[in-house]
Design goal:
With 297 residues, the chain is mainly alpha-helical. Helix content is 75%, strand content 1%. It has two domains: 2-42; 46-296, Orthogonal Bundle (MetI-like fold), CATH 1.10.3720. It has a two-stranded antiparallel ribbon with strand order 1-2. It is globular. 34% of the residues are buried.
């Protein structure tokens, strides 16, 4: 009995240490990121950094305006979510509720393969196929636009949204579906009035994960969006070349002198990206808790 208690205590201590390492690693990462970014603001105004409309780090004096990068990231991410969320949820509903089991067994491996394709392969496909196609179809000066980035990021977010949404739909109790059908509802009425509301917390988590995948992607958007640090117009912003925050960090970090204002400006961009991702995760957690509370009631 004593040995069993000691083993349980050892296992509990080990799990606590592992959890503590995760917390410490996250704390150190945040400390390093924010410390390096904060050093920019000794000589540069935070307001000018956030609201500045120009990103010209090599000019004299250098201009570090976040607004073009932030706008580009938001436009590309919004376009990707508009494309991927309806398609992803529809595919998840079809696989879990409508498809023949043999058909579902064929489709699911393809979805998993899509999730495992490296981002550089998506970027190469977009550069060779999607970019020229958009240029020809829409008669654009260049196909490397925010729309091309949105299409490719939407494709990359689809497997995550489909997989997580399908798991959420499959977790809906069978009794709810059978009760709805027994009361005279059709198959479609059961899906959109019973199944989807019951799985909404999981579906919302899938959407948030898709947003996180899209806004944090680097290589694909760097290859297909044109990398022009300008504020795109409205509503033609999707057809303009843009540069995202992630692409800016990837393109410029290897060339800047360590300790320079440009170096610290890139860390400041990374800090803003971290904050946006953190806010997305908070929203996802709050949505999940909200709908879990409703289900419990």
């Amino acid at each position: 009995m004593l040995d069993r208690k000691r083993k349980e205590k050892a296992i509990e201590s080990t799990l606590l240490m592992v959890s503590g390492v995760t917390v410490v690693a996250l704390f150190l990462l945040c400390f390093f990121l924010f410390r390096e970014g904060y050093l920019l603001f000794g000589d540069y105004s935070p307001i000018s950094f956030i609201t500045g409309s120009s990103w010209y780090p090599s000019s004299s004096p250098a201009k570090f305006g976040l607004l073009p990068l932030l706008t580009g990231s938001l436009i590309v991410t919004a376009g990707a979510i508009i494309l991927s969320v309806p398609l992803g949820i529809a595919a998840a509903v079809y696989i879990s509720e409508l498809a023949d089991p043999k058909v579902a067994q064929i489709i699911k491996p393809f979805v998993e393969i899509l999730a495992g394709i490296p981002s550089v392969v998506y970027g190469f496909f977009g550069l060779v196929i999607v970019v020229p196609l958009l240029q020809d179809l829409l008669d654009l000066p260049t196909g490397q636009t925010a729309l091309a980035g949105s299409i490719m990021l939407g494709m990359m977010a689809l497997p995550t949204i489909i997989s997580v949404s399908e798991d959420a739909i499959n977790s809906v109790p069978t009794a709810l579906k059978e009760g709805s059908l027994a009361l005279g509802s059709t198959k479609w009425q059961t899906i959109y009035r019973v199944v989807l509301p019951a799985a909404l917390s999981g579906i919302s988590a899938a959407v948030m994960l898709g947003i996180g995948r899209a806004i944090g992607e680097t290589m694909t958007v760097m290859m297909v969006t044109g990398n022009t640090a300008i504020i795109p117009g409205v509503p033609e912003g999707l057809f303009d070349p843009v540069r995202t925050m992630t692409a800016t960090i990837a393109l410029e970090m290897g060339e800047v002198p360590q300790g320079s204002d440009h170096f610290h400006a890139l860390f400041a961009v990374g800090s803003v990206l971290f904050i946006i991702t953190f806010i997305i995760n908070l929203i996802a957690d709050s949505v999940k808790k909200k709908y879990r509370l409703k289900e419990a009631v």
